[in-house]
Amino acid sequence: MWKTLISSRWTKEPVLQILFPVLEYWPAHRRRTSDGDERDVFALAATVALWEILQLSHSWCPGGVKDNFPRLLLTLLFQVFISTEEMSEEVETFWRRCREQRSLPPNPNRFAVQTVKALLRQLLDEDVLMAIGRKCGWDMLLKADTHHYAVGLLARELCRVSRSFGRRIAVSLLPRLSRGEPLWELPALAFLVEVLHCLTPRQYGPSVLQIISRHLRSQCPERRRLALRGLVVLSKAPSMLPDSFGTHLWPLGPAAAAWGCTTALCSTQAKSIWSLNESLLELLQDADTDAVQMTLSAFINVLGLKIIKISTPTALKLLEVLRPLFDNEHSQLQQLSMLLFQELMEATERSKSLKPHVYLSLVPFYFNWHNENRRVAEASRRALFGAARFLKWRDLEHLVTMEQPWRFPECLLEKDRSRVGQYVRQALPFLESPEEPLRKLAIKFLGIAARSMKQEQPELQLICQALQDITDDSPAISDLAHQTLHIIRAVRRTSFFSFW
Questions:
Q1: The whole model's pTM is what?
Q2: How far apart are the first and last CA of the chain?
Q3: C-alpha 166: how far from its chain's center?
Q4: Average pLDDT in the 33-48 region?
């Protein structure tokens, strides 16, 4: 029957146009037949029909299949997902009869995967299918807990072959995600994130940010992670658009008009992303390291455009969340948090209420300027420069510019004597750093601080006790601690004070 219908030019396209809506809408919306029937078998029956048609067209692809490739692929992937769940008795009976007539896989979900492969063979090389198989993509499609990973993998491979495929599928996918169909929403989001880079801001419009915003607040960690990945892609896109005209020549004529439109688009895009800052601030405190890393990247990309101006209350919230990350055990989070701090200093107007938070960032930046990880060290140096500029400390800004870190402790402690106790408490934890250079640096910093402290300051006793307790470290560290302690006592005795 299908061979006869597809072979005739009079019936081929009308048959396909009837078949595709049945395949697409029955699983998602439970469309009824004219007699009111809504059995689950219709979607599977339509899948069998499509598979028969694809088997008949190895050497050619019906125009209806080509034109409807995005919606067909998405619908078949949905078929794989729902047929992985428990099937009704009617579906099992139907499938058993199908298997009696044809040589088909034992389960409907495996058959749906087989149909996906048959569809892809019409338009792609066999190498693409083999690449997905080598990465276990077809097997992951058959499991509910890994289905969305496989869908993302398939999307990446399609974009690698042709960006136009990714663009067409993304356009077809956006309305489905906007409707918020919960059953297949996670795989659909995984697919969208992989094809977002194929679209321009004009093509995806505000709908993508609405979708991402909804999933940023999801209780599902995987959905939040995917939404953040999408947001990072969006935050990168506008920052690269103005460069298409070159960075050294000012555009003239029609190029000037295009540059102006592009700049306006960048501004709108950046402000739209920044409107999600409340949700992103909450995610900066998430236990998921990947989520925090992507959130920091999105903030950095948006502020890096130099378009956003941050209010003092928002800056205060951001500084509160950032400060614990400066000494995080993950070097990537350290680096990104410091880079974001620098962007924040440039995007925020100077305010007295911000200064106490900036003061408390100076010591962590100083120590991490000596970090063994060069990326962390460079990010710390840049953040320290941004803090000095924000505070208008020209001498501190100069020594950072000239890369003279050995002058920092004396410069800081002499300039801000009122906070010496705070700075000491911040430096004490670095005595237990796993990096020996940082432990040496902490001992020297505390020694300099002790010489400028008053007799009654409790932090002075803390310094002496901490140095006294360093006995199980390397000989170099122990010797330096004892020498520093000896110098502190000698200095105190000359001013008629002894710790004993």
A1: 0.82
A2: 103
A3: 20
A4: 66
